[in-house]
Description:
There is one protein chain. This protein is of the alpha/beta class. 16% of the residues lie in helices and 23% in strands. The protein is built from one helix and three strands, in the order E-H-E-E. The model has no long low-confidence stretch (mean pLDDT 89).
Amino acid sequence: MTGNTGPRAVLVTGAGGNLGRKIVAMLARRDWCETIYCLDIAPLAGAPFDSPKCRPVIADLGDPGDRRWQ
């Protein structure tokens, strides 16, 4: 890691949406980003979620009773 020192892990909410997919794809190409927590209400599949850096989290942030994100 030289020059660009960012966080080692990033959480992307709404990862399955239009902007979320683009952010995940950009982060997957960055050397400094080791882990991307991809949070969405629906299952995620295909590019860019097939990157070994992606860790899917399927949960509903709008539901305070959904323990999957807590």
